[in-house]
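Just curious. Invent one:
>
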Amino acid sequence: MFLLPVFLFFFASFAKAQSEGALTVVNGDFSNIEVEGLTALPQSAWYSGVPTGWTAAEPPAKKEGFYAVKNFGATGFFANLHVLSRIKPQFQAFQQEIGVLAETSDITLTFETTPVKEEPFSMGVAIANARGKGPEAILGKANFEASGPQRVVASKVPAGTWVAIRFWAVKGFPGLGKVAIEVTPSP
């Protein structure tokens, strides 16, 4: 019974934001673990499942090894792109549609990266036209190999564009946290 009102609240908020042309990241800090999607694993600080508001690659056949989100305490929750995305055999990004753009704008995607396993990592990030196909759907893209605050910018994105954000592991175990979006109207 508790889940329905919470779902309706999130759905109504998301629908309102989209109808007003705002871009909204749902659960960008991955801390919404109580509503749905994530289950605590016996190992301290790890959760299994797909975070609320996001779509991900199919989990491995044996879900007991599906370490999807790690709680780093004061640093926050980070999604493990190693298990939530795939580049082979078929590309599957960890992604979210964030709305439709009301006016031609610059879009700035900010987030933090950290390794969830102590080894070098590489990850890809894209701001994309959610309704587009192929390379022309990419509005802004970058690769990252270091921990810390990051950003990707898509400039002069036309009004009416359905926007998605996509993240994927290229190598190692990149962690993703504190995902946010900023929209600035373009002249």
Summary: Confidence is low (pLDDT under 50) at residues 1-20. The longest strand covers residues 174-185. The radius of gyration is 16 Å. DSSP finds two helices and eleven strands in the chain.
